[in-house]
Write the structure tokens for this entry.
Amino acid sequence: MLIVGTLAFDAIESPFGKTDKILGGAATFIGLAASQFDVKSAIVSVVGDDFNQEYLDLLSTKNIDLSGVEIVKGGRTFFWSGKYHNDLNTRDTLTTELNTLADFDPKVPEAYKNADVVMLGNLHPSIQMDVINQMESRPKLIILDTMNYWLDNALNELLEVLKKIDVITLNDEEARQLTGEYSLVKAAEKIETMGPKYVVIKKGEHGALLFNKKNIFFAPALPLEEVFDPTGAGDTFAGGFAGYLTATKNVSFENLKNAVIHGSNLASFCVEKFGTERMVDLKFDEVQSRLEQFKELTQFNIEIQ
Amino acid sequence: MLIVGTLAFDAIESPFGKTDKILGGAATFIGLAASQFDVKSAIVSVVGDDFNQEYLDLLSTKNIDLSGVEIVKGGRTFFWSGKYHNDLNTRDTLTTELNTLADFDPKVPEAYKNADVVMLGNLHPSIQMDVINQMESRPKLIILDTMNYWLDNALNELLEVLKKIDVITLNDEEARQLTGEYSLVKAAEKIETMGPKYVVIKKGEHGALLFNKKNIFFAPALPLEEVFDPTGAGDTFAGGFAGYLTATKNVSFENLKNAVIHGSNLASFCVEKFGTERMVDLKFDEVQSRLEQFKELTQFNIEIQ
């Protein structure tokens, strides 16, 4: 599994406290989530030489190949800081320093040019396209995550890369913005005509929807007593989704359902602590036990007549 | 099953059109939904003699006993009109004329004073209490629906009646208002200390949550291409929930899960047309086939290790 995305410093303020610069970035959360499935993965990214060696070591211990991570001498790592409002559903971005990300020229390691699954984290669509073009064989599954920033600022490039992918993940407002359709059913239908066969619409605390033609599947977010920090929840969802599909080598709609549940399950842990704190030492047993909670939450027994 | 609630005239504006005064009211939607389960039910309500005989006849053909419906000579029936915004999630109330409802003095028919299930539709909590007090034996299940208006204007009376009931249904904002807790998990826990053993939190297009101690169940709303008119969806949900429990005579948490699904299922029809239009001739086969869609939407197959 090949992961493209940011490795970053995040500084987060929430009603529960405030962090200094801590480990963040889409590729980080995706990689940590995917590592739950014991898959071979590699990150393609860029950092400055201010990036902590311990962060790289941490990712290495999770069996993530970092040979595709460029370390720019004298460069500074991408930095984002944001402040969450009281409801944790809305946030203000305080700072975005692209730094080394501004000139990011992704290089896919030779050993991953035939990866089965490519997970394109939220980045400029031209970078996402560049990575696809470096693949030697068509991956079984290309998953792309994006956000409103690229809809606003690189729509044409995004529409081009959409033609090349299998699964898109984006949130409800973004799906509406991309299609001009308020109904998510109609929005997903329109997005499928743009290229992706599968559309995953993330609704934050309201769960996620998976669409493929007339098939729809819904995974709720686990209702939690306390959401501490939503940063990385969407990336963790995507990483769990992609990691499960990589491990099971099955891209049927039925298995994509399971992948959506696994993604939601892992995201439910991510939000319980600041940054990556909860994800770095998440235990297999904890994950299994929470999957049981997802079953309790959603499975029912009605005989259809 | 005993139903207390309004029989009303509604006039609705939505982006899809506008109606004259049509049949509405909580008891109407509850009764129509419950009638899907072939249960014996009675409505306790009040109307003016301006209320259409054909509406009463319609409810009678659905096997609903109307001996508890007072028809006030020279009185006018409760009238509500509202206008939905483009997203259909928010609405403005244009008119509320209480009319005969202002002096509503509910009378439970003798034959229903030992009903198994009492469904208290959204009304002044004093009226809901009055009905409970008229019961000769404690019903197996008392379900109460309420709304922010009563939280604002009759909170003490509401808190009194909460002590007497088994299930409360209210929406997410109302649950937060009632408890001061943003987390719905914490809100539900607090509401349980106020009396109801089961708490159902309705989230409109985002589904409904059922809580009982540490048990949580979630039913999504069916994603629809087009929502035409949300009026009555909450009452239809409650009517389906109560009707199913009346028919199955089983108030275990497992069966309440099924009841939540049946409620969501029926509500998904209600919103497809104006007012009661879709509900009045809803066929058994349509209901069953949509239950199948709910299964497809939510059921997955992950083995827990």
